[in-house]
Write a structure and sequence with these properties.
The structure is a single chain. This protein is an all-alpha fold. The chain has three domains: about 100 residues; about 80 residues, no CATH class; about 55 residues, no CATH class. About 0% of the residues have low confidence. Helix 10 packs antiparallel against helix 11. The two termini are about 55 Å apart. Helices cover about 55% and strands about 0% of the residues.
């Protein structure tokens, strides 16, 4: 049925374009009014009828396009709600299982992730590089990844059919709600720089609203900080699949929250302590020993003994 509608829509659009062109040419090549009587000529009447028909076709096409866009948005919303509901159910079930296994929050987290990952993911996940999950879902082999919209944008830019099948949803909630920890980038100027003032002006230029808006559009909604002030940016209504992205700002924290960003948190992140804890549990290390290893790594990070660079 959808294919038939697409064909009909295409025919109607082609007909409208053809009629507009033909009647436009007819209006240019024929006399619209009689020189002697000043009345509209036969061909002038034909041109007028043609213009009216062309306008009618255009209005019909516009209406159909609006209806198709509305239906697409409703379908995307329905799929998003269904997917979110299912993921929440899976997440809640996994959390309850983990809580029964241990009352210790740290052990529950490791046990929870292990119980979800072990039966649903292959061992290759443990050796992924930074783009491994993107390649996984774009290959058609994977069904879900916890990631920004980069794989979707990659599919769009490379005209991959799988782009139609990819959508997005917020991170699943845990016992304490929804929380996310986006990466933080900072721009600084060296105190010893000989160009401090030009550097300040350059940074101000980059972050002017018109320039930053263009930056977001150029990245197709990928490069943007989770700020509430950007929740009304027009990029979100350009594509129904982007509709949920501004809401992520409501759940974003600096890494290490509720503590303030600090050197120890950065060392823990750069040394992949948390994902390595889960990997060790998946590979068979007892959860108690995993927690002890993780604590040892945190102590080293606080003492500055873990490497600082990523």
């Amino acid at each position: 049925m959808d294919a038939l509608m697409d064909v009909c829509y295409g025919i109607l659009k082609f007909t409208s374009m053809l009629a507009t062109g033909l009647f436009g040419v007819l209006g240019l090549l024929t006399k619209f009014r009689d020189d002697e009587t000043d009345k509209i000529t036969k061909w002038g009447k034909v041109a007028i009828v043609g213009i009216v028909l062309s306008c009618s076709f255009s209005l019909i096409l516009y209406t159909l396009e609006m209806l198709r866009a509305k239906q697409a948005a409703e379908d995307a919303k329905a799929k998003y709600e269904t997917t979110t509901k299912k993921l929440d159910e899976i997440s809640i079930a996994a959390q309850r299982t983990a809580e029964l296994q241990s009352k210790n929050l740290g052990r529950s987290v490791v046990g929870n992730l292990t119980s979800v990952i072990s039966p649903t993911m292959t061992n290759e996940v443990l050796s992924w590089d930074d783009s491994g999950n993107n390649r996984f879902i774009l290959s058609g082999k994977g069904s879900w990844i916890h990631n920004p919209i980069s794989p979707y944008n990659s599919a769009l830019s490379n005209k991959m059919p799988i782009a139609d099948d990819i959508n997005h949803h917020p991170s699943p909630a845990g016992p304490a709600g929804v929380h996310s920890a986006p990466g933080i980038n900072a721009i600084g100027i060296w105190k010893f720089s000989k160009n401090v003032e030009p550097a300040k002006e350059f940074i101000e230029f980059l972050f002017r609203k018109e320039n930053f808006d263009a930056f977001i559009v150029a990245s197709n909604a990928f490069n943007q900080p989770p700020l509430r002030d950007l929740a009304d940016h027009p990029i979100w209504v350009k594509n129904p699949k982007f509709a949920m992205l501004p809401k992520e700002a409501e759940f974003a924290h600096a890494r290490g929250w509720p503590a303030k960003p600090n050197d120890a948190v950065r060392r823990i992140e750069n040394n992949y302590v948390l994902p390595d804890m889960v990997a060790k549990a998946i590979q068979g290390m007892p959860v108690k020993r995993v927690m002890e290893w993780g604590q040892e790594q945190v102590v080293q990070a606080v003492k500055g003994q873990l490497k600082a660079s990523g």
